[in-house]
Amino acid sequence: MANLPAAEISADAALVSQLVREQHPHLGGQDLEQVASGWDNYIYRLGTEYAIRLPRRKSAAGLTANEQRWLPQLTADVPVPTSAPLFCGAPCELYPWPWSITVWFDGQDVSLSPRDRNVALAEPLAGFLNAFHRPAPPDFPRNPFRGGPLSGRDEAVQGRLNSGMVPHAARVQELWEEAQDIPAWTGPPLWLHGDLHPANLVAKDNTLQAVIDFGDLTAGDPATDLAAAWLVFDAEGRDIFRRSLGSQYDGDPHVWERARGWAICMATILLANSDDAPGLYLVGSETLMEILTGDRERF
């Protein structure tokens, strides 16, 4: 399986502490602890209230810049807290890329919870999407991997299906090939989170505490985000999620078929790239089981 991409820059605690003191001195002097080093970002906890996200690869720096430009205004009136930047860090001699300070959420990564408990998240996640899926302006950030037609992901998905990393690949391939013939989204490009899987949701006290990590922020087909119906939920949660969504998708009779196609795409990504993240591998495996056991669900 693929390994986590190598970091292209180091950002240790001493450097991060100095960045905070120089650019946001009112936040300096608080305890600082590295809590994660993910695919794109280093994550530090600052004091008890804040998190710091710093790109570990150049390709992620542009994603951080997109978050800084767009997220504060896009999430100002959504009903669920998000990881929108509270304070923006600028490139400097110490560190060449933009970085952000966000709220620290002390709940649990939803990928660590049994799927049947996620039913309580269905209504609040639908409420978030009802508010967030609004038409985007012409200069929205482009993303070649999210929001477009499923045909644009065919080569990558076929490669993963032929890799030996995806269980039940023959049946999954049949469903994926059926998805290639589904009519495309004809509405306006809607704002998308772009990566709405359980590890980017935080739960606390049996409800949705936050939606985080908008690095794949873009606009396009809302089916990209509606794939959460399979990525996050079992059949009961999926039903509540779908019934709790607004009417902005009612004019497209094929949106849920495409959403299942996007769920297949995302599940194969998780299965092929999560050898160092067993929780995400489990999300990919469970998602495929939701799709395969319910592949006759009516849309």
TrEMBL record:
InterPro entries: AGP_Transferase, Aminoglycoside_PTrfase, Kinase-like_dom_sf. Residues 32-262 form the Aminoglycoside phosphotransferase domain. Coiled coil: none annotated. This is Aminoglycoside phosphotransferase family protein. It comes from Arthrobacter jinronghuae.
